Amino acid sequence: MKAVVLLSGGLDSATAGAIARAEGFELYALSVDYGQRHRFELEAAARVAAWLGVKRHETMAVDLARFGGSALTDRIEVPKDQPADAMAGEVPITYVPARNTVLLSLGLALAEVVGAADLYLGVNAIDYSGYPDCRPEYIRAFEAMANLATKASVEGRLRYRVHAPLITMTKAQIICRGVALGVNYGLTFTCYDPDPRGRPCRRCDACRLRSKGFAEAGLVDPLTPAP
Amino acid sequence: MKAVVLLSGGLDSATAGAIARAEGFELYALSVDYGQRHRFELEAAARVAAWLGVKRHETMAVDLARFGGSALTDRIEVPKDQPADAMAGEVPITYVPARNTVLLSLGLALAEVVGAADLYLGVNAIDYSGYPDCRPEYIRAFEAMANLATKASVEGRLRYRVHAPLITMTKAQIICRGVALGVNYGLTFTCYDPDPRGRPCRRCDACRLRSKGFAEAGLVDPLTPAP
What we know:
Two copies of one chain form a homodimer.
Chain A: E1 2-6, H1 11-22, E2 26-33, H2 40-52, E3 56-61, H3 84-88, H4 99-114, E4 118-120, H5 136-149, H6 151-154, E5 161-163, H7 171-180, H8 205-217
Parallel strand pairs in A: 1-2, 1-4, 2-3, 4-5
Helix pairs in contact in A: 1-2, 1-7, 7-8
């Protein structure tokens, strides 16, 4: 059985990929270069894909930065040191318009071509930044649409399932699950705004969620610099 | 009011754009270079966008050809001179995996960035090639998903509507409607497999549907060569 896994290079998608592999799927990985502020994520995605032993890894360029509207693609400053309740409030400026819809659409195209009925992605609706396209109701709506969208589904050859195995897990639970599956989180990359050498800022929402997750799991992040 | 219109360069999307304009929208056009076999479509899209007087025209490159799986992007031969009942049967080889889902996803991203609630596309489920992502149930499912996907919709600022005004029209009706709105179909391009100078083959499904449409409308296609 084949599955497409969306790999961003981050901790969550690496774990989702490890879960898909543990469930017995042959993996086809898709990463999307959508005009992120830095390349470290995509380099991490390639490392994670190699570690997962995927059958094929595609990196597709789609220049969402051109449309603008996000701190992750524009020259808008990434928020730092936000209080925890700010993270729980409205959708932050790091939101990229329709990103997961574009990513899943490309994943669906790849899935149809390779004959995979299963798509895995590492979205999470607990320790997350409040993005609308990480919620269970969104994932279900995408799945319903996908099954009306393609030749393979309307001809009855594939029934798509969109798996978001981390969606109700805390960051600590995700990390524990990944560690149990042997994921080396030293291969991953999380920060929204690293320095030019690729060192995480440790102050953006993504860095802080990661750090809180390792702390709550009682584990040391392999990306922690030596003291 | 703003609307995003997907412009392929073909007859249908030009008509959908003219309808959106007639309904009073300020237009943002999106074309997608997905690795089509030829560039004539995209050149036509630029002509149509200029004729419509759009506020902005984006052409986004997304290399779906890389995934393969279609006569429109692969080195697979485009079928010619098919009997009419073959067209009414199963999904043809010119189907591009998940194309309309990728196109609409990019349209959704642009719509969110510019603040447009309305998306127009020229899909048609009558005189068409049998593509699953041209059917009304697909369009409704995409719309439902879109309203769960974005910051603008979950915050209640935009309620997306996906308009497919041609979906139940015959090709002849589409042409009559467009002519009434002043569309110059000489600007458009339809053929799946033109010669290197951009002359339509007149034998693929797209050419034959166009030709049948003009004949049934009792009109002469401005692309018809002089006798």
